[in-house]
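Hey L., structure's done. Input below.
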Amino acid sequence: MRLAIFTAMVLFALFGTAFADISPVKSFQERKPEPYNGNAFGFVYGGALTENVKGKVNVHTITYELNGIKIAANVYTPADYDPSKKYPAVTVAHPNGGVKEQVAGLFAQRLAELGYITVAADAAYQGGSGGEPRHTDIPFFRTEDIHGMVDLLSIYPGVDTERIGMLGICGGGGYTLNAAKSEKRVKAVATLSMFNTGRVRREGYMSSQVNKIQETLKQASEARTAQIKGENISSGTVDFDALTDDAIAKITNDLYREGMIYYGKTHRHPNSTFEYTRSSLSELMSWDAADNLKLISVPLLMIAGSAADSLYLSEDAIEKATGTNDKELFLIQGAYHIQTYYVPEYVEQEIKKLQEFFGRTL
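Output:
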């Protein structure tokens, strides 16, 4: 009994909330945007908003509290937005290591241009959101982040709560699938270049480390003890400045090679990092986004690059999503994983497909 009480106290101290006490979003507040690299909102994606203009798509920088943690988010509203009217809405979950100012912001803005109210939020413990230890990456909390975005849309002026959808990108796609298993307030789910973080952390990318699973789990357990003692718990930060073009070219997997270019050079943001706490592996490695996908009962669209070496993750998930007959794996011909985030010709195909999908289902 004493051990159970002590464990609960440690979890509360580390993560700021008890697992049994899940607090919904009840209100939100406007906050001042954080400029970066010349953009008033800190956006680093192509075609990003630079100011709010009456009658056009606008972005509202807000914060709200989720399970005792302050979440930083951007809400995009359509042109000529009228809070007295009703609009369909979509949550947009960012990739592992990403932030709302990158690809999540791009797709949130593009969907707002199509008439949707959208929200892109930084995950708890990451980006501009609060939470300690920093860079905690645990499925429970990443999934809660998405439920929290649905909470927000449920109270946001102008949202038609009968027409809410989800979009998750890369790791955010895996967590979006997980949230969709139980989130019955949404009517449609979409992913882009879905990344099953649990499977990859457990087996290695493309099953490259299946012979090291027990060793890695042991290291994760030891990191948990180190975390309690206040010792270094980081997985290590990628030094983007030290990465040369030659070094990047030698990376064989397109996901990591292109990722170094996207996150380290072309779409770099100070809040975006590949860092995560080593202790997070304890939860990540025992979790899998593809488990119980039969619980998803709404239309499902999964978009991925046909040339991406991460395609196997989307193929596995779509096959296991047996709870809906309205499902599709849509391939972007010739695209690598990261290229689906920003290459104009690929983005246009993806937006067109999302317009068709959400237009039909929401």
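The first helix runs from residue 2 to 15. Residues 58 and 115 are 12 Å apart (CA to CA).

-- N.
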